[in-house]
Amino acid sequence: MGSNWRVQSDKMAFKPVTHVLFDMDGLLIDTEVIYTRTIETILEKYIGPTELSWDVKKKQMGKIAPDLAKLIIEEYKLPLQPAEYTAEARIIQENLFPHCDIMPGAERLIRHLKAHNIPIALATSSAAETFRMKTTYHKEFFQLFDHHVYGSSDPELKRGKPHPDIFIVAASRFPDKPAPENVLVFEDAPNGVKAASSAGMQVVMVPDPRMDEESRREATLSLTNLYEFKPEWFGLPPFDD
């Protein structure tokens, strides 16, 4: 499969947008490897050395903390309650998350949109506390966003991805409250893509290279990395370089 497998055929069908929403984990910062390490550490403790299967990994991506915990407990029959799993995971992650890196092309795109006064917001399944751990060394970068929505701790959100709630709420917090068709979402996970699509928004997917074509199909556009994205496809100002 080519890295831009939908660009050539669908480029002319993309609709112009005015606002942009971004997922965080696996899209803007490289945290998915930490989630995998966390899960495998807990699995080893309770059932012995176990490699997280790609099928379960794919289901896990983009979920809010309680849903993620429930998924892993059910899939691997762990003797834990979701709150217990989450507490153990946090102990592991608080030493790892602060050292995650920004993903290729993320800073270039965010700074470009900000420089051209395009409204941008973060719509992450993370809790506010976890967000602070992940962004320990990237505070200035994340201050570029107009606002943040934290799926695991926002009182207005009752359902996580793949439900559309987080993107609907994030869009509603822009002062001019854009219609869904005027909002573009960036995601890396099938759960997030489904959530954005259900919200009536176009969605650019930058998935794990292991992601199969079927899991990418619901995205408006699928790319290998954010460097491949051309803002003008969606009526946004083109890059200056």
Describe the structure.
This protein is an alpha/beta fold. It has two domains: 7-30 and 100-234, Rossmann fold, CATH 3.40.50.1000; 32-98, Putative phosphatase, domain 2 (DNA polymerase, domain 1), CATH 1.10.150.240. The chain is 39% helix and 10% strand. The protein has helices spanning 7-10, 32-47, 54-60, 65-76, 82-93, 106-115, 128-134, 139-142, 165-172, 190-198, 213-216; strands spanning 19-22, 120-124, 147-150, 183-187, 202-205, 221-222. It has a six-stranded parallel β-sheet with strand order 3-2-1-4-5-6, with helices on both faces. Helix 2 (32-47) crosses helix 5 and helix 4 (65-76) crosses helix 5 (82-93). The chain is globular and about 50 Å long. The model is unreliable at 1-10 (pLDDT under 50).
CATH topology type of the largest domain? Rossmann fold
The number of helical runs is 11
The CA-CA distance between the termini, in Å, is: 28 Å
Question: What is the architecture of the largest domain at the second tier of CATH?
Answer: 3-Layer(aba) Sandwich
Write down the CATH class of the largest domain. Answer: Alpha Beta
What characterizes the major β-sheet?
A: 6 strands, parallel
According to CATH, the homologous superfamily of the largest domain is HAD superfamily/HAD-like
